[in-house]
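Recap from last week: sequence in, structure out.
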Amino acid sequence: MQDLRADGPERDPILTRRAFVAAAVTVGAFPSLAVGHPVTLPDKYLPQLVNTGRKDWEAGSLHVLPDDFFLFFMLQDGLAIRYGVGVGRKGLYTAGTFTVGRKAKWPRWRPTDAMIRREPHKYARFKDGVAGGPNNPLGARALYLYNDAGRDTYLRIHGTNEPGTIGSAVSNGCARLTNEHVKDLYDRVEIGARVELHPKVATA
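Predicted structure tokens:
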């Protein structure tokens, strides 16, 4: 498999004309995403156009590489928009192939029963749910991941009110982006898009 780490995809300068035009439009939006960030992220976690070299990853699909803390939204010809993410902590990350079955702006959140059992001191008080808003753990947007049987897996790709956690494994299994970045991703992703949560290789 081709190296998709931060110093890998950007090296290939060969772009088709169609892909280059799409990339130019995409990159034009990125400066506004970086400005006003409440936390200064390393440059590698800011949205950027990369060449993954993976032409087998279809346009419109999403790929999360947990060891690198990257999410790729695929464009044409192996090009992708790469975002920095936080992922599930040890023992809680679930690899697999899913489908975006639902999208929501400023979603309501309720901890899962498993989360409440695991950490009742932290989550029991939220058993009736939390209304959407800036203090909601799902942040500004959420993509709901369903399995092939059409059932909600309770896995999400979502925003966060803790942007400093991007680039770390701290969640209960979901992938999180900053609110600014998840808003950008949300507008690009269609219902029915395929999502690949790639396996962890590192043990941490």
